[in-house]
Amino acid sequence: MDASIKTVRKKATPYICPLCGGSVSELPQFYGCDNYLPKDGNCKYKIYKTMFDVPIPAEMLEEILAKGETSNKLDGFCDKNTGQPIKAKLRYDESRNLLVFVEPEPTDYNVDYKIITNRGTFMIEKDKPFVPTSTYNRLFLAYFEKFNEGEKENG
Length: 155
Description:
Elements: E1 11-16, E2 23-26, E3 30-33, E4 46-48, E5 50-51, E6 54-55, H1 58-67, E7 74-78, E8 85-93, E9 98-106, E10 113-117, E11 120-124, H2 135-154
Antiparallel strand pairs: 1-2, 2-3, 3-4, 5-6, 7-8, 8-9, 10-11
């Protein structure tokens, strides 16, 4: 057996794909349609378990799969135009095949540092630890800690 071949563990769910009517399975990073192969119809339905590095709780993912939209708002996002923190409901947009914000509203955070990068805006509070959710965030955190140490030495 070839050692380079990885086994993908997928778990069956009771949900039906809104695009093609196929079954939806849970994989480690996302929920996706079982008809994704070209021979099965090449369906593109996929809902990632994170959005802009913000983990989406399992209950909300299940609500999106069942109803297409969440009933409660999730916070931790940033407005792409202003960089301000927002919370919003999430809805699956069939025409664009992705999750979109519904009814976004500003949230109040005690932000000590706001850093805008090409991957999004990071808001860091001194009282709360910054929890990296991806490799990019871990690299960013290492850079930020190095910058913060230099600021303390110069301050």
